[in-house]
Fold:
Amino acid sequence: MSPESQLHRVVLLPGDGIGPEVTAAVKRVFAAAGAPVEWEEHAVGLVALAAGGELLSEETIEAIRRVKVALKGPITTPVGEGHASVNVTLRKRLNLYAAVRPVRSFTGVTTRFEGLDLVIIRENTEGLYSGVENQVTDGVVMSMKVATELACTRISRWAFRFATRRRRRKITVFHKANIMKMSDGLFLRCARKIHQEEYPNIEYQETIIDAGCMKLVQDPTQFDVLLLENLYGDVVSDLCAGQVGGLGVVPGANFGDDLAVFEAVHGSAPDIAGQGLANPLALLMSGVMMLNHLAETRDDPRCRASSDRIKAAYDRALSEGQKTRDLGGTLGTEAFVDALIERMPRV
Structure:
């Protein structure tokens, strides 16, 4: 157990757009919960460019490697032009190969299904989403979908290990191996092998992705843990977020072998930046995931205790109708944080 005076250093990347606002909100809640965290802040994205720096500096990359844990706000990615995604670059540079998106229902957030509890696990480093593209000739461009046995095996083993630790009951692989027989076929073969040889105790299922998406819309409760390659995971995780109220109520995390970056998965929403309207819940929930990670990897029960206090606070606030506008409420960012802190269990 860590000494009572010890704080765990975490690299903080506020991002741009509403990023600085939701990051400030998280820092307030962490302080109120007594979370044993010390922040090391680095600018990334458009904010860093405006200050004369780089989108993602080597200093920031090295800081995450040194500290091993980071919390990241939303970062703007231009559509169809401009600079490459900072998020994708971060995952590649740090080899954060496993993306995890828990999706659960909240009392007080009305959706079609109640009691939903899913986890989407996404391979994070290759496939079409990695953005390997080139222009073949005028008017013709090509994107490359790369799949390697190393990456497919690595993410499969990570998913089954995660499911075992979290006592989940079933893993379903979404794929398109009926058409992409080599790339998605490799993904399936690796997942099957890990299931059969290392984790036969976990129920295993395979579903063609178009049929799987239909089933998610019909009844998502039939699934437990979803395992997908990169692009599929990006799309399906947002689909699942829509089942519980949107991207404002789901956290995200990216794991490597010894590094972890926790993040809000929604956009930077520059249209409402600076207006005090942003919902900080997604980044706060990602912070809760981070505290639980620190509790496990640093053997510090203080992290778990503060995580439990924060989770209890936002569960109670939502159940009592204390919500931001994106969830049908009336609260701004600061008022929502005030509501959480008022409902936080005392030590």
